[in-house]
């Protein structure tokens, strides 16, 4: 869930009023956009879950929480996965779930340790499909060095689920001194991306709705814990996040709002592979809003940027890392991108879904 | 998930051969019984998930795991809830989820600390229903003294979910010396139940399928952490479990198998309320197999039984606690019940679902 703390409901830049586009009160029922990871997801948290949970809620219900138990600093994170189809080019819902939770721990600065797995299976789902997904989970967990230690399986009647839903919740250990929070981001900080963007969303879309783009795009699902460890060993990282639902646009917006800084992206530095660019052109999508499952965005002090980039590039999963922008004191909470033509456009928090059920 | 460790596939008692009634190979697709918490759930874990996860699996994927991180002993547990309807007499899917996860931590001997919450919502679900459920979660969490610290929301298209599914995953701290494991159960141990059985399952069933039983049965959903704390302060508890899916029968069978002891229950000591008894008689159900959501089964040494019973009865949620049987060296892995008529019947692990989607 996006962190919505510390941000007024409306900000203004260059005379344009920005207002949360879909107030909760205008949507009496859940719509797909509430699961987008964008503004509507934030509305749901801010105006429904947080008030309903009341004093039981802590940490703004963020993507992950740091908890102190018995003298240990732990990172704790949960994600349910409903991607459709469950098997797509480059991965399955199983490795996606394991890598997604490993990555939420990794970008919290933690060393991933154990995961729980909870399945909601639809009656009639072939056991062979479940076994295939479970094998992918096992392989992903072994690759990431995490153990699957506890689980649960529920079955719902046919027509009341959709094959396989899986929740993975993870626990990681935090080294002393690691302090990854959007509130640490300051004007001047450099924004780094660990590699090519938009790949996962296009990979899932390409095998759905009968769409074909000539080239097969494979999901970038991958565990980032070694990349984050390399980064943390190099410099004092202020903030990291994996830009999944809502893409880089959602992630950078959430950080900008929570940090109360502006962000200026340089569009021509964004690493968009040709196949993603082509597919986005065809479909009218913006690669900044398309989900990634094996990339991270990091915010570091300007003096650390070169060392951080070198650390990212030292790992195969960060080889194509680049700096894509910087934080500024102007337009706090707002992300702007300098276009290839020299103009500037606002990169809003996405309101709702471009691509539903991609994770 | 039931613990299936250390138990041969078939056991024999009194000349009757017991064989797992539904081998996985005979079910090419998922059926409701795979979510029963009974023999078919065990088959799925043993023959599908554990082999597929391979070396990544640890702890036999039990209901909860004890993990050591940074010198802290923690209990970790996950559960997804798919109960239908989401609001029933005495509770909602929200408090059921919080209490269910609190109880899984409590019966592991842990002090519940933090929970994650992950929703899978169906497009079109009224926000008012979600708010009602979330308020119940907040109230249950406050009552249990746990914080909801991280979350996730996914939305699936109409017709591919069923209103509200929620996963709660919990983390608790374990005091030094607490060691709750079925392997600690020995012949002679006394079996205690904290109160009346079968209430939750009948409560859910009573408001579904248009059934009415004259008296409204209210779910017993409740947090048991204070009851378990009172018990642990009194004696060295060998094993505890909350008898949810599959009821007392499933729980006692799982413990008997993992401990390799026999269990003899005294049927006339089982606390079955009249309304549950009546409903079960009408529907052909056995109260031993009906789910509970606010009860625990404990195994203690015979010399501790009186103290343990007194400790249970000292708490409002354990006021009706009773001893219902004992562990024996004979028929290891098998549960037998002495009936009111003086005969003995085998209380098998349920094969599949009596009552689907009750949690």
TrEMBL record, chains A, B:
Family: Belongs to the HypE family.
Single biological process term from Gene Ontology: protein maturation
InterPro entries membership: HypE, PurM-like_C_dom, PurM-like_C_sf, PurM-like_N, PurM-like_N_sf
Domain annotation PurM-like N-terminal: ranges: 63-173
Source domain of life: Bacteria
Domain PurM-like C-terminal: 186-332
Family annotation (Pfam families): AIRS (PF00586), AIRS_C (PF02769)
NCBIfam families attached to this UniProt entry: hypE
Coiled-coil residue spans: none
Gene expressing this chain: hypE
CDD domains noted in UniProt: HypE
Name of this chain's protein: Hydrogenase expression/formation protein HypE
